[in-house]
Amino acid sequence: xxxxxxxxxxxxxxxxxxxxxxxxxxxxxxxxxxxxxxxxxxxxxxxxxxxxxxxxxxxxxxxxxxxxxxxxxxxxxxxxxxxxxxxxxxxxxxxxxxxxxxxxxxxxxxxxxxxxxxxxxxxxxxxxxxxxxxxxxxxxxxxxxxxxxxxxxxxxxxxxxxxxxxxxxxxxxxxxxxxxxxxxxxxxxxxxxxxxxxxxxxxxxx
Length: 206
Ligand SMILES: Cc1cc2nc3c(=O)[nH]c(=O)nc-3n(C[C@H](O)[C@H](O)[C@H](O)COP(=O)(O)O)c2cc1C
Prior knowledge:
By secondary structure, the protein is α/β, with parallel strands linked by helices. The protein is built from eight helices and eight strands, in the order αβαβααββαβαβββαα. Strands 1, 2, 3, 4, 5 and 6 form a six-stranded mixed beta sheet that branches. A two-stranded antiparallel sheet has the order 7-8.
C-alpha cells in the first residue's frame, strides 16, 4: 500500500506557465512554450495560460473580475501547481500590465494553507527588444516571486528578441534556446525534488 508520501513521489509535477503578450504568436509566448516543453520532457505535466487568455482576464478586483470563470481557472491551476513559469515582455523597462494583472489574481490564494507561490519553484523569462529591459524585467519578476514566497530558479532567461529569433515555435538563437530549456528543466527538477523529499525542503521553507 502506498503512503501519501509515496503517492507524491510517484506523481508527475504539474507546472503552470503564465505569460505572453496581446500579439498573437508573440515571441514571449513562444519562449514560454519552449520552457514548458523542456519541463514536460523532464517529466512534468504542463498547462499554458498564454497571451490570448491573459488578454481576456478582467482587471483584478473590478466588478467583472469577481468570480469570473477565467480568473477561477487560473487560480485553480496555480493552487494545484508544483511549479510556475512566468514570461513577460519588457514594456518600458518592466513587466507588462497584462502579465501583472494575471499575477494579481494570485492574491486570491492569500488565505490558502499554501499561500501564493509558497515553497514552489518559479522560472522566469523576460523578452525585450534590447538587453537593458530584459534584465530590469527579470529583476522585477524576481522581486514579485520573493513577495509571493516562491523560489526563483537559479537561471532566469533574459531574451533579446530584436533579431527575430522566434519563428513558428522554434528559437534560432542557440544560447537563448538553451536558457529557456534550462529554466524549464530547473522548475521541473525542483518541483520533483519537492514532491519526493518534502521533509528536506520544509526545513528551509519555514
Ligand atoms: C508598450 C511597449 C513597451 C516596450 N518597451 C520596451 C522597452 O522598454 N525596452 C525594450 O527593449 N523593448 C520594449 N518593447 C519591445 C518588447 O519588449 C519586445 O517586442 C518584446 O520582445 C515583446 O515582443 P512579443 O510581443 O513578440 O513577445 C516594448 C513594446 C511595447 C509594445
